Amino acid sequence: MSVTTERPAASSAPAGRPDNGPVAWITTTDHKKIGVLYCVTAFAFFLIGGALAGAMRAELADTGSQLVGPQSYNTLFTVHGIIMIFLFVAPFGIGLANYLIPLQIGAPDMAFPRLNAMSYWFFAGGGLLVLLSSFATDAGGVATGWYLYPPLSGPRYSPGVGPDLLILGLALVAISTLMSGVNVITTTFLMRAPGMTMWRLPVFTWNAVVTAVLGLVAFPPAVAAFVLLLFDRRLGGQAFDPAGGGDPIVYQHLFWFLGHPEVYILILPFFGVITEIIPVFSRKPLFGYTGFLLATLTIGALSTGVWAHHMFTTGVVDNPFFSAMTFMIAVPTGVKFFNWIGTMWGGKISFRVPMLFSIGFLLNFLIGGVTGVMLASAPLDFQLADSYFLVSHFHYTMMGGSVFGIFAAIYFWWPKAFGFRLSERLGRGVFSLMFVGFNLTFWPQFVVGLRGMPRRIVDYAPGLGWDTPNLVSSLGVVVLSAGVLLFLVDVSTSRRRRTPAGDDPWGGYSLEWATSSPPPEHNFSSLPRIRSERPAFDTHHPELAIGPVTAPPPEPT
Amino acid sequence: MRFALRYLWAYSAFGLGLGTVYYALTQEWVGSIALWFLGLMPAIVALWWARHGPSPAVREADDPEADPAASAGASLGSFPMATAWPALLVAGVIVIGASLVYGLILLPVGAAMLVWAVVGLARESRG
Ligand code: HEM
Question: What is the average per-residue pLDDT within B94-121?
Fold first, then answer.
């Protein structure tokens, strides 16, 4: 069944009671429900990936073998890495894009709703196969590290079906990303409301578009690499086997042509999130909107030219070229810090929970970024590659950055999506525990990294100066986990309490704050006039708006 | 829509240019080809777009002075309300994947689900 939708005039009938049974969710094509499905599924994967991380940190808390053996440890970090990257952070960004883009641009849905549903199910199915590959195979889980390098992932060293299922699962996730990329770009370019020019688009939407472009560019080479690997494993192919004239370095090139843009796929949506939040809680417009967008576009382009900085130590790539490109990409990222600081500067900052998480993001990501610039220097990288310094660096960007962005987004848009608030008091507790726990976990890892502790080891000898930092790091996970648990408590108590949020609880700027909470089916019963990047703010504060914001009533027909 | 076109051309020039510089410096084929494709793909879309031009709805969105009332009532197309086929299609793929672990007996079941879903989806899309 389908409905034909028209652009709303001044007002229309109130939305009917939404159908919320399981069948409605499974068969839905509504972008809001699909967005929620994406986010909830991704968050469930976060809990699984987090539990695996907890197991690893428990093992590493002390010297000697506590919990798992070497092979299981290898499986733990492989599955943890894959889950966190491909099944949690990236899909959460896609979920937010699904939920928000039509609302932010004034459209009734995504351009291709059925394709949208398909992309969710491909993601969920791919995720299931990844889990199956890890836990349900006789030969044990995949233990190759998240980048599945041959020859370790080849038929000789990983003979079970685990890697095959994993490749199939990742291929499904990749197809899902391509489908949602097409949808995001088409929706944003073609379905904007009248007056919503490209230079008035909310920053989150812009970042989601650049992320979608990166997905379209980066995933196909990796899928090609996975398929070739499958041929090598099952059909006697030798694409990556030097004995048959193949070359494992080709795999590394193809993989990192995905892998590096992927880290921007993991961070750009959350740059967008905090850039929506910081101006609202500073009561100022974003400082340097155009500069910010140009920086995003530049990052989108440059990120496709830095892949082989992950291959410095192979000795077969042009290190100066990739080093220079990597230094360059730090510049537009630095520009964004000016935007964020400039926005807060002289603003009337209110430290509500979404703002706290955004500030946490800035502090953590700054440390991740600065250590990234250190690693971009090839001589230093030779020293620090494959050490805990690197592990800490990427967790500062992905956990301290993206995951704090995710929590900021959850606290900010929750009232819009569900019509009731999360608790401010518990939210502050969640932030404090997570911020302290995160830094306790990962700061000591810089220290052990500089003291020479390599990554991917299940045990270490005493007396190397590694014991205390490792213990502190593992205790940090306890604090971090308490923060996540408190968040789950907050969700369940707030669901019971259901304190109504109102349509615009924060005094938001972008268009989603101009419709009801939760929004009706097809999103708007009336659209305001769009005359700036802050249409909802203009509507609620016409005295401060640029030009008239209330649309004249439609002509009677 | 001039902006989208410019974006596509700029991206294309970036890919082709960087690919060429990279090839000149390294003579390494995998990265060079990937970068040249990065340049080619947006060029194809941009060429198509330049020939066909934007729709009226897009022109309205790009008009900074446009009123929502101006396009009130304009059709935005047809939106499907619900569909079970995507979920079934992926369930089929999972059963096929699971057959690698739990026995090939599951393979025809998965394949049947997949075919059923593809046919259903195609028929639903037609109308
Ligand atoms: C919940 C907090 C987290 C903790 C406590 C944690 C802990 C760990 C640990 C102990 C390792 C293994 C290090 C080694 O032996 O080399 C690891 C690896 C890794 N983590 Fe996390 N992690 C967390 C969150 C995340 C997040 C949010 C992401 C990504 C978005 C992530 C991505 C990775 C990756 C890619 C690896 C490398 C896997 C490999 O070596 O193949 N982690 N993490």
Answer: 90
Tally of domains in chain B:
2
**Nearest chain B residue to A6, by CA:** B75
- Do residues B17 and B53 share a domain? yes
Give the model confidence (pLDDT) of B38-94 as tens digits.
999 999 989 988 888 777 777 788 888 888 776 666 666 667 778 999 999 999 999
- Sketch the domain layout of chain A as residue ranges: 27-544
Query: Over the stretch B17-40, which tens digit does the pLDDT of each residue have?
Result: 999 999 999 898 999 999 999 999
Residue A14: its pLDDT value, please?
A: 40
Nearest to A423 by CA among A407, A411, A408: A411
Residue with the nearest Cα to atom 15 of ligand 1?
A: A456
Buried b (16+ CB within 10 A) or exposed e, A459-493: ebeeeeebbebbebbbbbbebbbbbbebbeebbee
Distance from C-alpha of A477 to C-alpha of A484, rounded to nearest angstrom: 10
Contacts of A193 in chain B (CB under 8 A): 61, 68
Q: Which two tokens stand for residue A209?
A: 């578009």
**Contact (CB<8Å) A4/B35:** no
Give CA–CA dist B106/B92, Å, rounded: 10
Q: What ipTM was predicted for this assembly?
A: 0.90
In the CATH hierarchy, which top-level class contains the domain A27-544? mainly alpha
Contacts of A217 in chain B (CB under 8 A): 38, 41
* C-alpha A211, offset from chain centre: 10
Segments in chain A below pLDDT 70: 1-19, 138-139, 544-557
B57 and B6 share a domain? yes
Note the pTM of the prediction, 2 decimals. 0.92
Report, in this order, helix, strand and coil percent for chain B, each rounded to 5: 75, 5, 15
Domain of residue B12: give its range. 2-63
Q: What are phi and psi of A387, to 5 degrees?
A: -110, 175
Distance of alpha carbon A128 from alpha carbon A136, whole angstroms: 11
**What pLDDT score does A555 carry?**
45
DSSP assignments along B20-46, one per residue: HHHHHHH--HHHHHHHHHHHHHHHHHH
pLDDT for B51:
86
* Helix A113-135 and helix A90-105, axial crossing angle in degrees, nearest 10: 170
Distance in Å from the first CA to the final CA of chain A: 29
Structure tokens given for A190 = 């073609």
Distance CA A469, CA A392 (A): 12
The answer to whether residue B120 is domain-embedded is: yes
Report yes or no on B75 lying in a domain.
no
What distance in Å separates residue A415's CA from the closest CA in chain B? 25
Nearest residue by C-alpha to atom 43 in ligand 1: A53
Residues of B in Cβ contact (< 8 Å) with A26: 84, 87
